[in-house]
Amino acid sequence: MPYAVPMRIVIAGGSGFLGASLAAHLAANHHDLVILTRQPHPPDPRPPRTTYEPWDPNGHSGRWAKALDNTDAVVNLAGESIAAKRWSTAQKQKIRESRLLATRSLTTAVREAAKPPRAFISGSAIGYYGDRGDETLTEVSAPGTDFLAEVCKDWEAAANAAGDLTRVVLLRTGIVLHRTGGALPKMLPPFYLFAGGPVGSGRQYQSWIHRDDWVRMVAWSVTSDPARGPLNVTGPRPITNKEFSTALGHALRRPSVMPAPPFALRLALGEMADALLLSSQRVLPVRATDLGFAFRFANIDEALADIFPTR
Ligand SMILES: NC(=O)c1ccc[n+]([C@@H]2O[C@H](COP(=O)([O-])OP(=O)(O)OC[C@H]3O[C@@H](n4cnc5c(N)ncnc54)[C@H](OP(=O)(O)O)[C@@H]3O)[C@@H](O)[C@H]2O)c1
After folding, report:
1. CB atoms near residue 33 (< 10 Å)
2. Ligand 1 mean position to 123 CA, how many Å?
3. Predicted confidence band at 38 (pLDDT cuts at 50, 70, 90)?
4. What pairing do the DSSP bridges indicate for beta strands 229-233 and 208-210?
5. Residue nearest to atom 37 of ligand 1 (CA)
6. Which residue's alpha carbon is at the smallest distance from atom 35 of ligand 1?
7. Ligand 1 atom 18: the closest Cα is on which residue?
8. What is the whole-number distance in angstroms between the Cα of residue 198 and the centre of ligand 1?
9. What's the rounded Cα separation, in Å, for the pair 80 and 94?
10. Of 77, 82, 171, best ligand 1 pocket probe by most atoms within 8 Å of the beta carbon
C-alpha cells in the first residue's frame, strides 16, 4: 500500500542484503531514493526511483552531503560485515570503525543540512544486550559488555549525536531470515548433507525476524512519528536454537539431530562462534508492538514455510 505522500529518503548501505530489500520496498511505494555507496560503479540497470551517490564514510561530511538537502529521512545501514571474516584484531577494528565513521559522517551532514531530515533511522543490533541466557530483554534492558555490545553502544551514541535536530530511531536488529542473505544461507549446508542439528546445547535463544517484516518495520519507523529511540527489530516469538533447528529441518524436510559441538565451532570460527552462534538473546519487540506494528510472520514455521515453499 503506498504512503500518502512520496518522500525522498537517503540510504547509506542501501546496496547490502537489508538495504537493497528496503530500497526495493520503498521505491515500490513511490518514494525517491538516494543510495550512498563506496562503489565506483553502481548497478546497471538502476532500480526504479533510485540514484546512487558516491561517498567516503570517513567520519566527516563531503560533497555527497548535498544529497541530504530536501530529504525526509536518512537510513544508516553501512558497516563492515560482522560474519564475513574471522575476527582478528584488525577485523574487529574494521567492524567497529566502519560503523562509527559512517554514522559520524551522516550526523555531521545532518548538522550541516540547510533543513535537517525529519528522521534519522540508524542501525544497531540485538548484540547490544550481550549474552543473557533466558532473561527477557526489552528496549529498556541494560546493555552487555562483550565486543558486539560495546560496538552497538558506541554506534547508538554516535547516532544520538543528531538527536537535538531530528527524530533518531535505533534499529536493534535481530537475526534476519531470508534465502538471499544474512545468517540463514550459512546454516543450510549441514542440513542439505543430512547433518543438521542444534548448535552447542541448543538452549541459547535466537531472536529472529522474517526479512519482509524487517523491511516493513523499518519502513514503518520512517513514517511513524511516535517511533523514536531504541526499537527492537525482532519478531514477537524468540525461540531456542534447538527449536529453531527443528523448525529448519522440518522446513527443509531434513533431519535435525546432529548437534554441532562448541569446541569445533570455536576451532573453526574463533571468538565469532561465541558471539554469533552460542550467545543467547531473548528479545521482545515491545516498543513496536505497543505502537501497533503488526507482524506478518510471528511464527517460525510460517516464516520458514514462506522462505522455503514446497513446490
Ligand atoms: N543481516 C542481519 O541479520 C543483521 C542483523 C543485525 C544487524 N544487522 C546490521 O544491519 C546493517 C545492514 O546489514 P546487512 O546484512 O544488509 O549488511 P551488508 O549486506 O553487509 O551491507 C552493508 C552495507 O554497508 C556498506 N559497507 C560494507 N563495508 C563497509 C565499510 N567497511 N565501511 C562503510 N560501509 C561499508 C556496503 O555498502 P557499499 O559497498 O555500497 O558502500 C554494504 O552494502 C549492518 O550494519 C548490520 O550490522 C544486520
Report:
1. 23
2. 9
3. very high
4. unpaired
5. 13
6. 79
7. 16
8. 27
9. 7
10. 77
- Residue of 173, 217, 234, 244 to test ligand 1 pocket, by largest number of atoms within 8 Å of CB: 173
Report the C-alpha gap between 235 and 225 in whole angstroms: 21
Rounded to whole angstroms, the Cα distance separating 101 from 296 reads 35
Taking the C-alpha atoms of residue 3 and residue 41, their distance in angstroms, rounded to an integer, is: 31
Do the Cβ atoms of 308 and 188 come closer than 8 Å?
no
Measured from the Cα of 126, ligand 1's closest atom is 6
**Structure confidence by residue, pLDDT tens digits, 133-156:** 999 999 999 999 999 999 999 999
For CA atoms 57, 31, 162, 234, the dihedral sign is negative
DSSP one-letter string for 176-242: EEBTTBSSHHHHHHHHHTT----BTTS-SEE-EEEHHHHHHHHHHHHH-TT--EEEEES-S--EEHH
